[in-house]
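Predict structure. Input: Copine-8, 578 residues.
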Amino acid sequence: MFGLEKPAGQQKPGGSCGFPSMASVGDFNVLSSSIPATKVELSVSCRNLLDRDTFSKSDPICVLYTQAIGNKEWREFGRTEVIDNTLNPDFVRKFIMDYFFEERENLRFDFYDVDSKSPNLSKHDFLGQMFCTLGEIVGSQGSRLEKPIVGIPGKKCGTVIVTAEELGCCRDSVLMQFCANKLDKKDFFGKSDPFLVFHRSNEDGSFTICHKTEVVKNTLNPVWQAFKISVRALCNGDYDRTIKVEVYDWDRDGSHDFIGEFTTSYRELSRGQSQFNVYEVINPKKKGKKKKYVNSGTVTLLSFLIETEVSFLDYIKGGTQINFTVAIDFTASNGNPSQPTSLHYMNPYQLNAYGMALKAVGEIIQDYDSDKMFPALGFGARLPPDGRVSHEFALNGNPQNPYCHGIDGVMEAYYRSLKSVQLYGPTNFAPVINHVARYAASVKDGSQYFVLLIITDGVISDMAQTKESIVHASKLPMSIIIVGVGPAEFDAMEELDGDVVRISSRGKFAERDIVQFVPFRDYIDRSGNHVLSMARLAKDVLAEIPEQFLSYMRVRGIKPSPAPPPYTPPIHVLQTQI
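Output follows.
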């Protein structure tokens, strides 16, 4: 999300949702996925801008900048049109951006009063600016963020309203079924064992595989099972982009024989079952050699059904809140906090690993929590005054109200605790998991979802109880992120992360996979760039949250609440282009 695709992905006439012409090109970024999670359209309006013109009102333009992760450099993303003679512009030209829940995208909106045709911004009067994150816009009520414009000391610069709208094409899936007739016979003793491979074309003319059907054994007239694929994966939301389909004969040794291929597009397929969707399978080598070659069989589309998926953003827009709780490991194996070798060492010049993990994840999640109040817990320490061992104590010292204001408040409480408690043991996770589960169990209507971040240095002492807690929590609206810091072996944690084998306790399996474990050492940037380390960590640990969230809502049959009615600003007519 930190870079933008090439403008070649722009909208074709009557196409779905590529880019309008306003988008400028950001650099390719290693953190970006090839398929964006979704695209959002940003609309910008202002109220009570500064008046910089003597005889008339200002002629405003909005310029959007995005920030590179590593070096924090601001790059121009795009500009709106200029609107003449108004202090309350509602810009028509939108900004279309890739949106990933797991990445923090810093944005800057600059406003200028345009005085000439020059594209050079230094030739125009600066009207102020607004900083925010894309998550902050999306996470605001109704995905509508209103903030004061700042940047000119001593002056009220007015307010800006930015609204985010998810683009529909990114959420469609299609259910398709194909059959084939008279395919070439490739096997000596029997007929072929055919399967199809689908590829979407990329901007540079190369192809990326996006789906394989199952193999149908011993037939030249196969009927494959219907399959479902997102429009994003099939053609990246571009209805006219080439889709190449290859037909192979399966061989046990993996050297599958190529039967032939054909090309189509989403637009052609969307006509459904018709004469337009019967394709000749062509083998270019055979065609070149044999004069009488017609084809290597035909493939026919039997059915094409479009389904619109409910998205994570539909729930956020409908008011679902993400509640974030952090639990920090205060066991003695972390080392004495006053020693530089300790994982809890309070270095005045840089964050320790606990601080980095907490900030990396927390700064993204806080955009989706309207009150910004976060419960912060510790486990494995002896508490003053009597030295009792606790596995769920409030970092702010107030068990009745463990909430801290913002991520900075959590950091402060963490540093204060280090000075007052004694690191001890053992490393028990079940109490903090059960703590959050109690809250999650009280709101199962889809209005709230809970994310628990556990940061630990190591070997878990209550494995059986923790597994039981996770199996119980998998029925609740919650997810658990575990970040392992330090050099320990984290084999047990991998077992809790149910990616390979679904976790079970006493013969009961977890209803959903709700745990994501990562070792922090895998993310440390060799050049010492902590900003990059934190961005990589956040990307990996948060990437699974939207799908875990949706799996809970789907299993429970919970639909998103309707979004609040959209803000409709008053109309202003006069517009010119720059």
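The first strand starts at residue 38 and ends at 47.
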